[in-house]
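Protein folds are increasingly written down as discrete tokens. With that in mind, we are printing a sequence and the tokens encoding its fold.
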Amino acid sequence: GLFAVDDGRGWQSITPPTAHPIRAVFFAGRHYGWVISQPDGSSLQIWRTTDGGITWQSPVSLQVEQPVQAIHLDFLNEQHGWLVAKLETGLNFSQGIMFSTDDGGVTWNRHSTELPVGEPVQFVSEEVGWLAGGPTYSELYVTWDGARSWERREIVSLQAGQIPAYQPPIFENDQIGAMAVTLYHPVNPQLEVYTTADGGLNWQLASRISLAQPLGPGVRVPVAMLDAQHWLVADPSGTPGLPANIVQLSMLTTEAGWAVTQDQQCTDAGCSRHMTLVQTEDGGGTWAEILLPVTP
């Protein structure tokens, strides 16, 4: 189910009727939101709300011919959005198809140009978007023409033994942006942060951080980036007070943010995963668990 919490009144269910199972959610502000459900293997349903989930419009259906592994949503504003359906393929491949909308999700158009990788797309404008992926996230792509074509970019100057894992860049405006790259190395794993002042045409190394915990190839250390000057790295053994096993990290301001931790517990009957949502109000100095609603 989908829930919202506001002003300390507790969790309220805002799940669209018959939306099951939910595969992706995106809100552009407090009022405009979209939910994607997948009732069967070949069709997607897109629900939209303009009042924060109090009511939902009748869903729009999209057809996908192949089994879908993951679905990603990105909206630039209340009108312009993109949907990526990552197709089920082998471990050494990453394929996806993309749809876009320019009327807030009332209608969707399928792009004829094949995506280079089936990963989330993040658009800076209606024409410029970024995509990071590949089997080990070592590939970075940009489109300058609204996804009609894609250009591969090589940003990092690699040393012997290093394998990059890119994260899509974040932009303060159409010119100023920042990007985190996790560098695998068997002895000295690192995180590098790059910045741009010309919309991504050129990138400069702004910071290099040695990571205290080892990482495998293709593993991206969780990073929450607010802008080119402010970010938080989830490296618990190198950051006092940070919870262990963080898999997702998000900061709303330099002080307020959330993280998802994941623990695996194994018995003779098998293994299970337990996920916890925690929050900070002091820039990551201390964290407290958020009790989530119990769904039937």
Remarks:
- The mean pLDDT is 87.
